[in-house]
Amino acid sequence: MAAPTLGCFQAPGVCRGDGRLSNTCSFFPRMKHQNLRSAIAVAAPQEQLCLDPKVVNLLDGVKWDEKGLIVAVAQNVDTGAVLMQGFANKEALATTISSRRATFYSRSRSSLWTKGETSNNFINVVDIFLDCDRDSVIYLGQPEGPTCHTGSETCYYTSVFDTLGDSKVCILFFSFVEEFVMEASELVFYCLEFPVAEKQRAVSFDNIVFAGGYNF
């Protein structure tokens, strides 16, 4: 039986599934669902990442942006908390599949980086999900320690609503109808002229839409 053909591309520093560098480019045919580590290995002398055709097809089906990147979100599999957001290219996603540790592409350093490589606060990935448009990915995993550099469990610990409290935003809904634009302009001046409390009572979606007789 002929050996399967592997697709390879440059990806220095990629680890084998057990965390060690592989000395040869090898293929393991018994690939199970949610366990793709056996489909990826490293040819250390050439520093090439060798992929099973199924993995190559998956990566080719991703809608990478003009810079070859997608948004990559890490989520806690146990709590559902969103841990962090970064970016991934083909090598980063393939490395995450192989090592089972959340790996991203640093736009500032123009290189791959694995979360925890400095702090040892790794995110151990148990599954990976592509969204319906295939232009973003979620690393579903278990974090080893806090994810944020501040020491917080998640990078998303600032609530906008808690920060704003009872503050309101004066929002105007404009139409291309000339008369409505004129009325909206008057409301803009009203927002600028009167105290905040008066603005909140007078300027609302209903006031703007129905005072001018417009129905959307």
UniProtKB/TrEMBL annotation:
Catalytic activity of the protein: 1-(5-phospho-beta-D-ribosyl)-5'-AMP + H2O = 1-(5-phospho-beta-D-ribosyl)-5-[(5-phospho-beta-D-ribosylamino)methylideneamino]imidazole-4-carboxamide
Pfam families for this protein: PRA-CH
Pathway(s) annotated for this protein in UniProt: Amino-acid biosynthesis; L-histidine biosynthesis; L-histidine from 5-phospho-alpha-D-ribose 1-diphosphate: step 3/9
MF term (GO), any: phosphoribosyl-AMP cyclohydrolase activity
The protein's Enzyme Commission number: 3.5.4.19
Keyword line: Amino-acid biosynthesis, Histidine biosynthesis, Hydrolase
Alphabetical GO biological process terms: L-histidine biosynthetic process
Keyword Cell membrane: no
InterPro entries for the chain: PRib_AMP_CycHydrolase_dom (IPR002496), PRib_AMP_CycHydrolase_sf (IPR038019)
Domain Phosphoribosyl-AMP cyclohydrolase stretches: 84-157
Superkingdom of the organism of origin: Eukaryota
Protein's name in the database: phosphoribosyl-AMP cyclohydrolase
Organism: Apostasia shenzhenica
